[in-house]
Every structure is written in C-alpha cells, then in structure tokens.
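[09:14] KT: can someone run the structure on this one? pasting the chain below
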Amino acid sequence: MAKRVLAIGIEPGSADYSTFPQLTPALVRNYIEAQLLRLRGLGYEVTSCLIDLDATAEAAVTAALREEHFDCVVIGAGLREPKERLLLFEKVLNLVHHLAPQASICFNTTPADTVEAVQRWVDP
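[09:31] RB: done, structure tokens below
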C-alpha cells in the first residue's frame, strides 16, 4: 500500500515575496505542483493543504489531518520563515503532533525540494 503524505504550505497568493523578488505566486504554485506530481510518480499518495495566513489556517490543517491517516507530513519552508510566522508554525506543528502522532514530520527548504524531504523519512 502506498504511503500517504500531507503537504502543508502557505497558499502562494498569500505569501510575501518582498525578500524573494525572483519568486511570484505563479512560479511557487508551479514548483509545488511539480513536487506533488513527482511524489505521485514515485508511488506516494499525496494530499495538498495550502493555508492562508488568517484564522482559517488551523481549521484547514485540522480538517486535512482528520480526513485521512498520513504516514508523513511535510511542512513547507514558508511556514517557518519569516519569524513573524513562528506562532502559526508552532500551531501547525502541534496540530500534526496531536492529530497524526504516528506520522513522520519533515521540512522542505524551498518549494523545489519537497520530494527529497519526504524521501528522508518515508519510502513509497
């Protein structure tokens, strides 16, 4: 049976690109989609959970975690930086810990290395 992966990240249209002017919402969305397709091509079952930076973020993560059993949860770099997102990052991490305690947790460093993050912890 294929391993299930939940990919949590910031909705590209909600992100602040001022420190990364070379990135655009469309480019980031393309990176995300490419990584999800690569994971699926390697045999993983993948669910994407892109969240806004408002009060709905926790509800979206909670709903995704309650919907299915996941073997691995990858949390995008956009949730860890900038430091103003620390509280949201902690909330998401604690939701994963409480609602999917059996899941491995991993982190990508860019929208382009999600596959490598997942593969560090879970084979398809």
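[09:33] KT: thanks! The longest strand covers residues 4-10.
[09:34] RB: yep, looked fine to me
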